[in-house]
Design brief:
140 residues; Nucleotidyltransferase, domain 5; five-stranded mixed β-sheet; two-stranded antiparallel ribbon; 3 helices; elongated
Length: 140
């Protein structure tokens, strides 16, 4: 007798953090992962977008700052995707477009080809509201 247990997870996410709500093992387990917003070390007296080069200071242009932000988000989404590979049913929800950006990455990954991934918009929520929403979504 081959009985497969579906591993279900809900993720509330925005561009700075993701809350994983795992309900496949009984009581909900909530873990939070944060995006690395710092990117690199800043020195005392340095502006937020400046770079210290020895005794002088150079200013980063907008294109360079955008590339750094994009690299940070890419690393963040790849970290989330790695954590989701073990799950069969994935529910993405949150207030920003981050859920759609993550979905596009998952859709392009062969590991998620046979997984059930659904997306829904939501507001900011407390941890208890997130757990209740995931349980309701998976009819638990």
């Amino acid at each position: 007798m081959n009985t497969k247990i579906n591993k279900q997870i809900g993720i509330w996410l925005d561009h700075s953090q993701a809350h994983f709500i795992d309900i496949s093992k009984g009581p909900a387990i909530v873990e939070t992962t944060y995006a690395d917003e710092h990117g690199r070390e800043h020195f005392a007296g340095e502006a937020a977008i400046g770079t210290k080069l020895g005794p002088t200071r150079a200013t980063n242009n907008e294109h360079h700052v955008h590339n750094i932000e994009r690299e940070v988000l890419s690393g963040y989404y790849n970290l989330l995707a790695d954590r989701l590979k073990a799950y069969d049913d994935i529910y993405l929800f949150g207030p920003t477009g981050a859920k759609f950006e993550l979905y596009n990455i998952l859709a392009g990954d062969k590991h998620f080809k046979d997984k059930n991934i659904r997306i829904e918009a939501s507001d900011n929520m407390t941890e208890n509201q997130m757990v209740a929403r995931v349980k309701y979504f998976f009819n638990m």
